[in-house]
């Protein structure tokens, strides 16, 4: 068994500027339909939620990068950050990485920053 982790922090303003400048081009490159629907439902705080999911995807990439290679990679949309029925975030990898048994994630955000931590347990 191998345990890997990934952490990321991002300024919410950076994501807000990207969305306001590049609009749909940026959003559709990074986020899945479910993520967009969730973030847009947050109205005035939507940029915090977009930033939190961006940080989460970065943290996922850092934690799973050891299992990737030239022949096997993942894109932004291959890591979907959704919430369970209790509102707890979880990672859904849309492209299966056979070694990975489980992924745990924690996301937080405030007015200026969003942060995410990911722990991956793999069967190696």
Structural commentary:
The protein is 36% helix and 32% strand. The protein has 124 residues and is of the alpha+beta class. It has a single domain, classed as Ribosomal Protein L22, Chain A. The strands form two sheets. A three-stranded antiparallel sheet has the order 1-5-4. Helix 1 crosses helix 4 and helix 3 runs antiparallel to helix 4. The longest helix is centred in the middle third of the chain and has 19 residues. The protein is globular and about 45 Å long. It starts with a strand and ends with a strand.
Gist of the model:
The protein is of the alpha+beta class. The protein is 36% helix and 32% strand.
The low-pLDDT segments are none
In CATH, the topology is named: Ribosomal Protein L22, Chain A
Oligomer: single chain
By secondary-structure content and strand pairing, the structural class works out as alpha+beta
Radius of gyration: 14 Å
Classify the helix fraction into a percent range: 25-40%
CATH architecture: Alpha-Beta Complex
| Intertermini distance | 5 Å
- The figure for the number of domains is 1
Largest sheet: 3 strands, antiparallel
Write down the CATH class: Alpha Beta
Q: What is the number of helical segments per DSSP (H or I, 4+ residues)?
A: 4
Mean pLDDT across all amino acids: 95
User: How much strand content do the residues show?
Assistant: 25-35%
Order of strands across the main sheet: 1-5-4
Helix and strand succession?
EHHHHEEEE
The CATH H-level superfamily is: 4'-phosphopantetheinyl transferase domain
* Total strand segments: 5
Shape: globular
């Amino acid at each position: 068994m191998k345990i890997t982790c990934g952490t990321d922090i991002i300024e919410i303003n950076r994501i807000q500027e990207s969305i306001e400048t590049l609009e749909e081009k940026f959003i559709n490159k990074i986020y899945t339909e479910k993520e967009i629907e969730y973030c847009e439902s947050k109205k005035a705080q939507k940029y915090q939620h977009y930033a939190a999911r961006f940080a989460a995807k970065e943290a996922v990439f850092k934690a799973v990068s050891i299992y990737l290679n030239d022949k096997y990679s993942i894109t932004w949309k291959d890591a979907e950050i959704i919430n369970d029925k209790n509102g707890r975030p979880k990672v859904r990898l849309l492209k299966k990485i056979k070694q990975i048994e489980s992924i745990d994630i924690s996301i937080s955000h405030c007015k200026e920053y969003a942060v995410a931590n990911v722990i991956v347990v793999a069967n190696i």
